[in-house]
Specification:
The chain is an alpha+beta fold and 300 residues long. It is 47% helix and 21% strand. The protein folds into 3 domains: 174 residues, Jelly Rolls (Sandwich), CATH 2.60.120; 53 residues; 56 residues, Homeodomain-like (Arc Repressor Mutant, subunit A), CATH 1.10.10.60.
């Protein structure tokens, strides 16, 4: 897996592959604890490790443990490279349609028994040989666009199946077993990610979800370990960070793009989250990933 990722992931950061929904990661130097945001995915590490922090939870994903993330979550993460090379990993997007079809075939007589379901939205689970072997075959097929298009979706499907069959597979199963409240929280999360530049307030979101603001706050925090407004702020700041690093936008332009009315408020909150001013953080990322101002940056 290390050999294949060294061949495929030649640039620093997180990049798309020959197969939609599969991303490759490469980090050449240790990165201290910083805020990150992942989409729902399965992350398999070949070399190096990451430590994630969400509230009072701490999880490690490395060559022996894969990460499962069932909702788009902001958390803090530090990356360590290996003694003999960079951090190397791949991320596979979780598709509900694939999950649903697999569970239907796994349990044709009816709903599965979710005895092992965990309510945690993020878990680190011990890697098994079957999942590791499928990961190698997926990377092998990514060498060829034709192989990726023909074989890739079937291998991804197999890998999701292996995770479902694993010790913490209930985390994925629970995505299809959501009650009304949890479904509403996922709809709100989706709206925040697609409409982050619009004015969104807790009162309006709660009214649309058919619950009180206090109930919304309680259920939202149980799922994401943060409040709705803090989550929205985090989404906006991460989007702005990417815009400045990838498109070389000025801080004021990025702030306006993500929904901030005050550039000074944006700068204060940005520095509070990332530890650097917007301009300094954009330059830091370019230096970290070794690119010029005209080249794109992919942030892992």
């Amino acid at each position: 897996m290390v050999e294949l990722l060294n061949e495929l992931a030649t640039q620093e950061g997180t990049w798309g592959s020959a197969l939609e929904g599969v991303k490759l990661m490469r980090v050449g130097q240790t990165v201290p604890r910083i805020p990150v945001m992942y989409e729902p995915c399965i992350v398999i590490v070949a070399q190096g490790l990451k430590r994630g922090y969400l509230g009072d939870q701490r999880f490690v994903y490395d060559g022996r443990h894969y990460l499962t993330l069932t909702v788009p979550l902001p958390f803090e993460c530090e990356t360590e490279v290996a003694e003999d090379g960079p951090f190397l990993a791949m991320a596979i997007r979780i598709e509900l349609s694939v999950l649903g079809d697999l569970l239907l075939k796994m349990h044709p007589q009816g709903k599965p028994t979710l005895a092992a379901v965990t309510e945690s939205s993020v878990t680190a689970t011990a890697m098994d040989e079957a999942l590791s072997n499928a990961g190698v075959r997926l990377l092998e097929c990514l060498r060829s666009p034709v192989d990726a298009g023909v074989l890739g979706p079937h291998i991804v499907r197999e890998m999701v199946y292996r995770v479902l069959q694993g010790r913490r597979g209930g985390a994925l199963q629970s995505l299809l077993e959501m009650d009304g409240t949890r479904m509403q929280m996922h709809r709100i999360l989706h709206r925040m990610h697609s409409e982050y530049a619009r004015r969104l307030d807790v009162t309006t979101l709660a009214m649309e979800a058919g619950m009180s603001p206090s109930a919304l706050h309680h259920h939202f925090k149980a799922l994401t370990a943060t409040s709705p407004l803090q989550y929205l702020k985090t989404v906006r700041l991460h989007k702005a960070r990417m815009l400045m690093a990838q498109e070389s936008l000025a801080a004021s332009v990025a702030a306006d793009r993500v929904g901030y009315e005050s550039a000074s408020q944006f700068s204060r909150e940005f520095k509070r989250m990332f530890g650097f001013s917007p301009v300094d953080e954009a330059q830091r990322l370019r230096t970290l990933f070794g690119v010029s101002g005209a080249e794109p940056v992919r942030i892992s």
